[in-house]
Amino acid sequence: MDNDGIHKMVGIYDRKKRLVGLTFFNTLGLPTLHKHGYHKSILQLDRQGDLIRTGYFDVDGQRVTLKGNHNIIVSGVFKIVALLKDVFQFVRSIINTSRFFGTNSNEVQPMTHDIAHKTLPVRIVVLSDRPVAFPSIETLLKTTMLVGLGVPDIVGDHYFRIKTMAEEKGIPFAAIIAEDIETILNNWFAKCFPEVVIVIGFPYKIPSSILSIPRFGFLNFHLGLLPAYRSADPIFWEIRNQEKRGGVTVHIMDEKFNNGPIVYTEEVPLEHDLYGQHIQKLAMAANKCMQWLIELLQKSPSELPSQPQDATHCQHYSRPNFFNLMISWTEQTAHEIAALVRASNPTYGGAITFFRGVPIHLLEVELLQNSLDSIQSLVDINTINVIPGTIVLVNNNGIVLTCKDRELLRLQVTYTEDGFFTAGKLAQTFSIKPGEIFAIPSMK
Fold it and tell me: Over the chain, what is the mean pLDDT?
């Protein structure tokens, strides 16, 4: 400890043991001010060893300028490493410079910053665009690892909730614009210096130049099972395809979407979940992934396990569009239609069908155990040649339609441009009668 109460000056290294930063800490392991009133002396390099930025920063992360002459020391391993003269002399008075540089000037020796026999926490930032991330963020806030929160610059509930959380905790916040993502992330990283970036739902592609900055890379919490469901919305497709299980897949991000090696997977049962219900399960699964990751980063951050994705099992799905949400009564079974309804509620406003040329969104349906043939005596129409999509029964319990293979489906909750209706109320309001048909209008 010197006269200013500074305990240690700590070297920060990347995966290849290159010095990328220097920070002062006090005896409690907390960042402290240098005697000149400056918080950090930062040397940030990319993975090729090129110097990105250098300088002193105050406690708010703003760059400040030192007066006087400050020499530059060049080491072959960095290509360019700038050390201010007074900082270098201060470090040399405390620590033998051989702890920084080996006998070969091109080698950098690893240096741990042991303060009270504890290592400093790995610095984590989170990018997210949906509420499923909140349990994981809350878990991170219980540690000292979270140093930044970022969202897409799309004003809404999630934006303000994350922004408020960041302001309350004094954490650097970033609102990312797609057209200027590289500049915004570079400036943000200059304030929080992340060692790992966690992405939990984010609509923009991260530039490769940014992916290479954090020491331990970018980790994506993909809300589906990889490699089977590579999609911007795997939840929809897993439910629509009647999968038995979904989950969260943590993988290392590279230049391709959902392509990097898998680090960890947390599966959850799908059962008969609506989209919204499954999201709640995934939020808890993501939090379990976060707890696992925190424990790993606290013990051995450089030993992140990974397994390449099996290309033979990769399936790519687009984001659902209008036609993916439409019901084909003649081609889909009752089970397939029910799965489509669950997959589209509430995120896509329900599965879409048409009645009297007007779109109707189906939000809840019930599979009936009876076949059309077994209820012939209960209906008022001839069912011998009835086509799929035909209404065969209307009462206060709903609207019963026939599907492919003469299966039956009861409509329960619907939405139209006039509002939300129970199926019974819909039938009453629009005087729906047996024999009328739900169908897809001609696209010609």
Answer: 79
